[in-house]
Amino acid sequence: MPKTTQKSKLEAAQEKLNTAANIPDSTPINPTPIGSKTVHKASTFDPSSYVATNLFSDTSTLPRTTRVDADKAIQSISEKRETLRLVGANLQLNTDAYKVGSLSEKMNQANITYQSDGINTQAKIVGFENASVNLLIAQSKLGQTQEKLAHQNIELEGLQAETPLRKLYWTAKLSLIESRISQVELAKFQLDAKIGAIESEAESIE
Question: Which end is more exposed in the chain, N or C (fewer Cβ atoms within 10 Å of the end residue's Cβ)?
Fold first, then answer.
């Protein structure tokens, strides 16, 4: 089966940049991987190899270039430098895009933290409201207990006010009983006296 190749995100981004800048398709620039053993050797110019040994004749070993060829080469090099400038601008653009993306991620993290704090705040509000309800319930129970205490105090005051009246009642009742007992005893005494008188009269008649 033929293998299907998928474009990497870097290649897709490069194509979009090339399309936006009207740059024709070219070989993608692949960055040198970390750990690569490739060594880039820059070209150097050694003046001692090209100096004229005789100032009065053509003794330099520099290669010959016509003015037309030099102008063409310089124009080509200038255009390549513009290409590098464009690549550098795109690299800077990509760098800025990643920086903005990083700020976006930090914003998302801050948003998550904000929402988490909001949930914690709501939880604390619910706890506060629950505590407030419990306080109202406790206050209601306290009010009911206080009313029961007031009822008990009223009943106590009534009993306390009734106590001297009950004392008077029992004192009067005892006095009445004592008075009746005295009357009974007096009547008995009077009856005994009459009986004795009658018996004395009877004896004198005999």
Answer: N
